[in-house]
Amino acid sequence: MWKDTLLQVLISFLPVFSFMVWYSKPERIRQAHIFLGVACGIAMMLNAHYTMVNEDGVCLDFRYIPLIIGSLYGGIPVAGVLLVVYIITRLNEFTNQWDYILFAMFIIIYIPVLYTRISIFDASSRKGRLKVVAVICLLIAILRIAVGLSGITNLKFADVSGHLLGGLIFGLSIMGLTLVCAHFIELCYDRIELQIQLHNVSNKYRKEMRRLQQFIDNSPLLVVFCNNRGFITHVNDVAIKFIGSVGRNDILGQKFSDILKKVDVQFEADPVERVLLGEDKLIEIIRLNGRTFYTVSCSIQDMPSHGTDGVLFIGHDVTELQRLKDEVDKMERLSLVGQMAASITHEIRNPMAVIRGFVQLLNERSPEDQQSYFRIVLDELDRANAIINDFLSLAQNRIVEKEPSNLNDLLNDLLPLIWADANMRGQIIDLRLSESMDILHVNSKEMKQLILNLARNGMEAMNDKGILRIETLNLQDTVQLRVVDNGVGIPQEKLERLFEPFYTTKTNGTGLGLALCLSIVERHSGKIHVESAVGQGTSFIVSFCKPGRYCW
């Protein structure tokens, strides 16, 4: 009898053991209830073969364990099938009407307890399911005792106590074994749930890493990661672009100081080494490939107690910001010059006009041999008056009247004057006008002054056999004026200050000609660009946006 009882216990654990082996991957979660239902059904039929009644009249039926486990974790369809299997295997075991009555009572109570959430517990939680197991096992023990008592004809104390004790032991055994089975199944579900959570966390981590990687690689910042020994572990695309024509794999694993030597950038000291030696944060401005970078070097903290895990080097290209700052400074200087011109022009021009009038009168009354002196004085007075006019033209608040004009027509009007100036110098004018030219809204007088200033600058930069090319282009959104000479050219360090007031490369220049040109171009919402190479010549490119177009 004990062998059969032990065999029933082992068969009752068979679904749990097989489920623990089979249920090892999260993707099997959808088939878990089916597998558990089939295993519990097989265990029930095997237990039905070894069911027995002990000497106290207690029926040792362990089919309840797979029935409860399969119903609780298999869902309503599986529970229904298992209940049908249990009923079929139990019907041929009934011997009297009490068996039918008590079995019907079990079914009537078992179904609501199993499939209804009673107020004292929630059957969807782990503790709730274990409480369901306890309630059902208690019900089975009571019914088993009732079945045993119904078969006693002579109610003696020994018989009653034997049935009560046997039924109680059987009920507690069923409860304990079922709770153990439920505990192991819960452990299986917890294990898979942890795997799913770990998988989700890993996916989230990988997604965040990909996003961070994409952010770093597509960022306009120059980013370099180094480990705690100063070797490069990661660079983004911007860093590769400025380091030179090498691949990412050629940079990774190299010393940061070796890379600095290759790109020829000057630091007071290697910023990575300085951070690794204990400095907190370094901020420097460097020049790299003709660009200006605002750089920050800081340590990467692993854990508060573990110290520095590496160094992060970030460079922000501030070339455009620096250029805008220089332009603002230039505009401020132009504005200052304009304000000076507006305040002193009348105070100077009026006495100069009086002086010129008296000098001209003295010139007419002077002897022939002295008139050359008066002409020199008059020329110098006219030159001073021209400089004052340039001052006035630099005024930023000056209001100009614009009318529709054709750039080719303005050049044709100025061509005789430009030709005459070139003939005096022994130079040639190469005029290339676009066949079709859109109309611009400009001030004709200022545009002629712009063209004359650029043309004369070009002629002064050439020798007596130089060729000055004046060209117009009708582009899609802009109209361009190009003045190209083949003179001595301008060094790169002087190009940056070319349009500053009072900055000149000429011996007798005032430094106001190109500043005046810039002022005229900006009042017409245009742009002026200079391209030059020493010994090859200079090109002044002036662009005007067509009416109704957005160019910059």
UniProtKB/TrEMBL annotation:
Which stretches make up the Histidine kinase domain? 343-544
The kind of enzyme this is, by top-level EC class, is transferase
For this UniProt record, give its keywords in alphabetical order, as a comma-separated list. ATP-binding, Kinase, Membrane, Nucleotide-binding, Phosphoprotein, Transferase, Transmembrane, Transmembrane helix, Two-component regulatory system
Q: Where are the transmembrane segments?
A: 6-23, 35-52, 64-88, 100-120, 132-152, 164-185
- What GO MF terms are annotated? ATP binding; phosphorelay sensor kinase activity
What reaction(s) does this enzyme catalyze? Answer: ATP + protein L-histidine = ADP + protein N-phospho-L-histidine
Instruction: Enumerate the SMART domains for this protein.
Output: HATPase_c, HisKA, PAS
Cited NCBIfam families:
sensory_box
Q: What protein am I looking at?
A: histidine kinase
Q: Which organism is it from?
A: Cohnella luojiensis
